[in-house]
Design a protein that fits this description.
The structure holds 2 protein chains of 2 kinds. Chain A is mainly beta. Helices cover 0% and strands 51% of the residues of chain A. In chain A, the strands form 2 sheets. In chain A, strands 2, 4, 5, 6, 9, 10 and 11 form a 7-stranded mixed beta sheet that branches. In chain A, strand 5 and strand 6 form a beta hairpin. Chain B has no helices and 11 strands. In chain B, strands 2, 4, 5, 9, 10 and 11 form a 6-stranded mixed beta sheet that branches. A 5-stranded antiparallel beta sheet of chain B has the order 1-3-8-7-6, with no helix packed on it. Classes of the chains: A mainly beta, B mainly beta. At the A-B interface, strand 5 and strand 9 of A face strand 5 and strand 10 of B.
Amino acid sequence: NAGVTQTPKFRVLKTGQSMTLLCAQDMNHEYMYWYRQDPGMGLRLIHYSVGEGTTAKGEVPDGYNVSRLKKQNFLLGLESAAPSQTSVYFCASSRSGDSPLHFGNGTRLTVT
Amino acid sequence: QKEVEQDPGPLSVPEGAIVSLNCTYSNSAFQYFMWYRQYSRKGPELLMYTYSSGNKEDGRFTAQVDKSSKYISLFIRDSQPSDSATYLCAMSLVSGSARQLTFGSGTQLTVLP
């Protein structure tokens, strides 16, 4: 039972490049989330999904897009990376809105 | 002003010490309070969850909530080197809704053997 798996673990991008971060969960959870974690800022919600085919904006959605085509996968896309998007990105899932969050181990992204 | 304030530390204590970690918040509408533990290079994991004022105990850990003062604490008794991690407080307006979950910035704790 892997839980929440994020790929890749590390990535370096140049300004303007695009990339997709993949999150996969094997717990059959309905809810999935993307957070970013920056020093002194705490975890901030980027986008989330309450079920397959649904997505919604969180606190800091600008510059990111997401898709939830399959229940077990939640993709985070950066269309044109900016240095301000240098961060550690965490995916999480939960059985419902009231359930505890299960986090992956993060993707460390540097944009130069 | 941030909605949730947490002293970033770092905090260093000897093994066996009692550790007190604290968060203050400004939004009196927060109803549910959580503590997450995050080991280096790992994702956060839920440690404690409470929704009422008062104390909740789980083994060596006690979560304390004072809604009148907008202040929450996590106490760790008989601290161990394995407790070395960053501790994040989190709170929400409704029961566990991640859509409304606000995190503190975390306190880095080191327990020295």
